[in-house]
Structures are given as C-alpha cells and as structure tokens.
Amino acid sequence: MDYLLLIVGLGLLLLAANYLVDSSVAIAQRAKISNFIIGLTIVGIGTSAPELFVSVSSALSNSGDIAMGNVIGSNIANVLLILGVTAMILPFPIERLQRHRDIPFVIIATVFVTIIANDSIVPGIKDNSLNRLDGIVLLLLFIGYMGWVIVQKGKDPKKALEDADEEASSSLTGKNPWLLWAIAIVSLVALIYGGNLFLDSAKSLARAWGMSEAVIAITIVAVGTSLPELVTAIIAASKKNPQLALGNVIGSNLFNLMFILGAASTVKPLVLVDINIWDYVVMLGAAIMLFMVVLTFKKDKFDRIEGAIFFAAYVAYTIYLLLR
Description:
Blueprint: H1 2-30, H2 35-47, H3 49-60, H4 64-89, E1 92-93, H5 96-117, E2 128-130, H6 132-154, H7 157-167, H8 177-209, H9 213-225, H10 227-238, H11 243-267, E3 270-272, H12 277-293, E4 301-302, H13 304-323
Antiparallel strand pairs: 1-4, 2-3
Helix pairs in contact: 1-2, 1-8, 2-7, 3-4, 3-8, 3-11, 4-9, 4-10, 4-11, 4-12, 4-13, 5-11, 5-12, 6-11, 8-9, 10-11
C-alpha cells in the first residue's frame, strides 16, 4: 500500500506544481507584471515546488534528515543523472555566464551549506543542525544571487526579454480570472496534500526496509521530486536544445541549497542525524565535476564521454547508499 501511496503522492506533487505555475503565470500576466519578473520568480520557484513542499513538510514533522537528504539527493541526481543522461543523448555547449558565474556559485553555495550543517566539527558541539539563523543567511544569499542575476541580465536586455517571454508562457493565458484563482487554490491544496502523502509513505518504506530516513530521502524522495527536471532535460535533448537542461539544473540546485533549505530551516530548525559527511562530499564532488567539464575533453562542451562518466558515478553512489 505504501508503494501506491508513494506514487499517488508523487503524481499529485508533480501535477499540482505544473498547474500552480501555469495558473500563477496567467494571473501575474493579467496583473500586468512583466514577463521578466514572472520568469525569474514564479517559474523559477514553481519548478522547485515539489522539493520545497517536501522539505518544509519534513521540517514541520521533525524529519530534518528527509529535508536535507531531499536537497542533497536532488542536487546529486540533477548533475550526475540528469546532465549525464542528457549529454549521452546529445552533447551540448556550456555558455559563458554558466562557466564564470553560475557553476562557481553552485560550488560556493555547496561548500557553505556543508560547513554550516556540520556543527559537530566545532569542539563541544555534538549535534548537526541548520538553525533559523542559518536559514535566514541562506535566504539572504538567495536574494543576493537573484539580484546579481538581474544585474547581469540587464547588460543584455534583448536576450533577457526573449528568455522572459519563453519562460513566462502559460497554457492558461486568457482564461477567466475566477477559473485561474480556483485552479491556483486547488493546485496549492493538492501540492500540500501530495507532499504530505509522499513524505508519510516514504517514511513508512524506510521503516519497512530497515533503512534510515536519510538514505530514503537521498534516493527515492530526491529522484521523485527531481522528475520535472529529468523530463524537461530529456524533452530538451530530443528537440535538439539540450543546453536548456544545464540552465534548469543549475537553477534548481541553487534554489535547493539557498531557498529551500533556507525556507525549511527558518520555518523550523533541521536536526540532522543520519546525513553522512560523504553525502555532502559527493554533492560537492558533483558540482566540481560539472566545473571540470569546462576544462576537459572538448572544452566548454558537455560531451558523451563526460555524460557516461557522470551517469556511472551516480550509479556507483546509489549502490554505496544501498549498501550503507
């Protein structure tokens, strides 16, 4: 039964997140909010809605390991699994801003989260946690990064407007405003319910399999909440636009590290019990591997050999988790 509830909960999460983004975009357009702001906020946050609701729900139910494991597992799956599979389907170039701004910032944010989450490295502190101050600092970092992105986009307004029009498209544009609000409210309720259902069934499976909540979160929960990114990447590659996957993954990883962990730990401090230091090391290693792609084989291009290496690394890490 838990398997069925897990699938139903995940389905609700993904479907509700999609309709919440579409209805919110359409409502914002009716309110004459610029496509640039819509693409930067509603669309960006909306694509990470499954991770956000699972992590915040985990924090509220005192399951800090699931909240952190979801972020760690999602970030590892995004880089090693999603980009690995995408590059094997169709190699793609890495743009200048991604090389010089976004990928280095992912590494910096990963190092920062690793340090503040491992309090036990300080003599006299036994427990690892993310407290409310940590959460507020992460949210401020997120705001700072978004401001930096806005400044960078302002240097190329034509491309920024083109990107905004593409990101802010909605299948519900032009619909009755009352219908849009109804869809948004129903989607939000379904998102919350689906997140709780998915979380509860994941916990039950962890107990049934004799595995820690951390391992379940890093594997099943993380891959489940990363499905939108995986589907987007495969579709983008099939349409010969695979570089879209890289921007999506980088954005998702930064949202996970700063916004989602920041929001979850601000709502309620996360006490971390079974998250292993090696999980952080693998997450950081994946980010560094992404940077190394710029320097190896075909420089500034993610090719099939690198994609195969990334995919093999993800399989190896998953086997390690199951054995652990």
